[in-house]
Amino acid sequence: MIRKLGKLFPSLQLLDNFHDTPIDYKWFISEDGQIIGIHPNEISKRDSKILSIFLQPYNMNIPPLTDQEMWWSKRIHDDHNKSEKVKPFRFIYFKIKGKQVDGAAFKEALQNLYTKTIPVLWENDKEGIIIESEANAVEETIDYEKIIDVFMSDLYMNINFLVGPYFHSLKKINIHYHSMVRDAKTAFSYSNQSVITYKEAILYSMVNQIDDAFLTEVNSILLENIEHDYELLKTIKVYIQCNLNTTVAARKLHLHRNSLQYRLDKFVEKTGMNIKKFNEASVVYIMILSIMHNEK
């Protein structure tokens, strides 16, 4: 369909990212989620009626780039001088879940939480990258868990954040930027946490690259008796995430300590794995991540 439309409308563009979006285009979205732009000079009233049969109008709610955002975009996507000096900075990936949102409202609410202007580069209408400079001694460090609460209460937006590490130069900025977007998508496919640090995301990326045949074989050997006991697997996963702290894990799972201990004993009995030992806990955690990811 896209190829045929391209012959009828030479200006047609598919929206891959929001960095170079023509602001004077009319935008549509197809049933399979493709966002299509056509210059309005090529669309007659008759064309509009025909297009409306199989395309829905798409409201481009992403605010235009500021001068500051344009500066960062050029450094990331173009071959600019990477030796320029910059303050330490980090990328914060965000994804807004649910229906299409008002990008301008999101950005305004976000800026109100910072003491200085924060560049935002959109990947599409629901996800993008915040570029945050390292806070000085006077400025307050941003708590992204609290930011989520603000957006939920004020704008009814459900958001995920992946908080990246600080960089001290522009070297390899293009690689770091695209790795951040890729690793964030992988991390949130494994975790239901609202905020993930880059250190946590590394583990999910590593698990994602392990050979499926190897994971299947190891699971069948180590977790054969409980591979489909998802309640028990979730319990062990949370227990390990809570650093083997029974009190914290029980609270998070809404269980009595004795009930949690019963499940832990059951796991040891069925698998023979001692998750109080680091090596065995690490293997079990990776196996559980792979099982639960495959069941999504």
Automatic annotation (TrEMBL):
Pfam families: HTH_30 (PF13556). Residues 232-287 form the PucR C-terminal helix-turn-helix domain. Gene3D superfamilies: PucR C-terminal helix-turn-helix domain. InterPro entries: CdaR-like_regulators, Homeodomain-like_sf, PucR_C-HTH_dom, PucR_C-HTH_sf. This is PucR C-terminal helix-turn-helix domain-containing protein.
